[in-house]
Target: DZANK-type domain-containing protein
Amino acid sequence: MIYDGFELDSKGRALICPRCSNEQINGGEFCKICGVTIINKCSSSGYDTYKNEPWECGTIAEGNARYCIKCGEKTTFFENELLKAWDVEHQEKIIKNDASDLFSSPQKTVHISDEDLPF
Ligand SMILES: [Zn+2]
Ligand SMILES: [Zn+2]
Model:
């Protein structure tokens, strides 16, 4: 199963805004039309009190990644609900596959002759 996602450039930036479908993405990190983040990356960040500096994981994720492959935290696309929860999509794809199986399989017709009927 391959999960749906968005097409990204080599820097992890969406080619088309994943929320409003704005096609004018000219750099930056956020869509100029709807303000959503257009880079799918790890959202994990915090403050290191030992080093006394903020940190962030910042790992660039693939277009369909819900979670960071390095630390397991949510990605920006998933946090912004641009990607469906995996279990929701999983369910949808199973239903779709079942439906297409039914459609492609030849209809089995059952013939009942008059003699088989009890009246
Ligand atoms: Zn947008
Ligand atoms: Zn991470």
Observations:
- Residues 1-105 form one domain.
- The longest helix spans residues 86-104.
- The chain has two helices and two strands.
- The radius of gyration is 24 Å.
